[in-house]
Backbone:
């Protein structure tokens, strides 16, 4: 049966064809190589993580750590096909994927490769031709066809897709591998499109030079411009992209439209965003929500995707933008918001604990108490909105541990590729719990809440790694007191292919 996701407005419960549903799963891109990624890549393969963890009841060494533990090794692999990945996802007991629609470009020998919303000519994006000149050939029809086919394939398997429209990372100019680029090749960059002068008036255009800003602050200043609702030409471009996406995915009922990934503002004394940065950012969220609901109303009013927002503080230490949005009665689009996702799993900044673990007391807050705190706080502030825990940005506070032979190893948690041997229900101190938590524990503890109140709490992992699908499915089963699903047949095993290439399609891609 085709999916039909709806939200009960009084409780926030998400239903599929009228039945409460718990969404859990990972992330993937239908436009390039669907890779098992976020391993620690070396020229000759993948570096296994060999780290030490604190063991209660024993004397730590001078570094505060002991007990070697070797994590699983992951290889960069491309799935045999997109449908094979969806089949494996379902076989493991998952039903959700997050998809970036805008998040950098892939390069091959310095040239842009892959599928993107706009066509290219003479080394430039045809943005002005598409928006200003209404030239239909300036859009990349293969990109929209691929999007629609992926939505259809996911829908046929009961998999919901959280389609993230825009991303802060497109504003970044940080050094990237020669195979990837953000701002230097972005279609939001006037210098990269077919009409640069038109782009200065209608795309992101701020002076970031000569102001003493580091690259992170430059990205924030560009993001601040991107979210400036007073930039009418820029807002019109964004709106056209949103409408093109909606037209491509209608009438599928498995779609959740996420407004933007991790928006951020500069908002210092030299570049004030507004008296209240939270209001500045909330105004954009409100406007973008209106683009979606208005388009649906103009096009039959017989279909609307769910709408989600990624809760984000506009500037360091500020309140979350969705909290400000909820409190501003004049921003009526908040009523149409269906779900709120919190990055870093709980959305709380890393906090201090009263005991040292491997030389640090500053650990990410993804312990069971913080998970419970987020459920409680979300219910108080945003009753009527579904809650999505996301592992995206768990890496905000990486932990460095002593490795073998005196080396130091940074523990990357965000995608669950490191298994830290903490049991589902094992009771340990708060510091030990934060130090040893991994994907298995995060998923289990979130899904315990989710299955206790089906439809109101959900879990999204920031990876397409096959092992992560398996871990989430097992955690979902354990949260319900059931055995884990059996492993899928061998033909789900991905084929090893070079990074940066399109996976081989062994079956016709439906377009």
Residues:
């Amino acid at each position: 049966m085709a999916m039909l996701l709806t939200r009960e407005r009084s409780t926030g419960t998400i239903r599929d064809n009228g039945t409460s549903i718990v969404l859990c799963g990972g992330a993937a891109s239908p436009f390039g190589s669907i890779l098992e990624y976020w391993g620690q890549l070396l020229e000759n393969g993948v570096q296994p993580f060999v780290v030490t963890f604190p063991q209660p009841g024993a004397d730590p060494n001078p570094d505060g750590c002991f007990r070697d533990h070797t994590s699983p090794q992951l290889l960069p692999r491309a799935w045999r096909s997109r449908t094979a990945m969806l089949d494996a996802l379902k076989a493991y007991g998952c039903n959700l994927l997050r998809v970036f629609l805008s998040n950098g470009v892939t390069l091959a020998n310095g040239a842009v490769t892959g599928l993107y919303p706009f066509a290219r000519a003479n080394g430039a994006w045809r943005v002005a031709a598409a928006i200003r000149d209404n030239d239909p050939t300036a859009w990349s029809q293969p990109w929209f066809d691929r999007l629609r086919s992926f939505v259809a394939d996911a829908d046929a398997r009961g998999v919901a897709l959280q389609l993230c429209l825009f991303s802060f990372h497109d504003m970044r100019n940080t050094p990237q591998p020669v195979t990837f680029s953000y701002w230097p090749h972005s279609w939001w960059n006037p210098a990269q499109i077919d009409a640069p002068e038109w782009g200065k008036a209608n795309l992101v255009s701020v002076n970031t030079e000569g102001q003493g800003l580091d690259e992170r602050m430059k990205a924030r200043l560009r993001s601040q411009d991107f979210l400036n609702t007073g930039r009418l030409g820029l807002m019109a471009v964004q709106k056209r992209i949103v409408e093109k996406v909606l037209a491509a995915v209608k009438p599928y009922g498995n779609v959740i439209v996420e407004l933007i990934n991790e928006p951020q503002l500069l908002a210092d004394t030299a570049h004030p965003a507004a008296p209240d940065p939270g209001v500045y950012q909330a105004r954009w969220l409100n406007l973008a929500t209106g683009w979606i609901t208005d388009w649906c109303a103009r096009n039959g009013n017989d279909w609307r995707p769910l709408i989600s927002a990624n809760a984000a503080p506009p500037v360091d230490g500020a309140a979350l933008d969705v909290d400000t949005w909820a409190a501003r009665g004049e921003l009526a689009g908040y009523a149409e918001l269906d779900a709120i996702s919190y990055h870093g799993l709980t959305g709380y900044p890393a906090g201090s604990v009263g005991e040292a673990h491997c030389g640090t007391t500053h650990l990410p807050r993804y312990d069971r108490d913080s998970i419970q705190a987020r459920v409680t706080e979300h219910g108080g502030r945003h009753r009527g909105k579904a809650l999505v825990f996301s592992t995206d940005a768990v890496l905000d506070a990486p932990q460095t541990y002593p490795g073998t032979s005196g080396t130091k190893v940074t523990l990357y948690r965000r995608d669950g590729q490191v298994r830290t041997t903490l049991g589902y229900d094992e009771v340990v101190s708060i510091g030990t719990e934060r130090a040893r938590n991994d994907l298995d524990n995060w998923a289990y503890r979130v899904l315990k809440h989710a299955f206790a109140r089906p439809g109101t709490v959900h879990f999204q992992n920031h990876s397409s790694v096959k092992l992560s699908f398996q871990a989430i499915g097992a955690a979902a089963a354990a949260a319900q007191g059931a055995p884990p699903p059996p492993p899928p047949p061998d033909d789900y095993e991905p084929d090893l292919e070079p990074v940066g290439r399109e996976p081989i399609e062994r079956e016709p891609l439906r377009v």
User: Anything to note?
Assistant: Residues 34-48, 491-511 have pLDDT under 50 and may be disordered. The longest strand covers residues 160-167. Residues 212 and 487 are 54 Å apart (CA to CA). The radius of gyration is 22 Å.
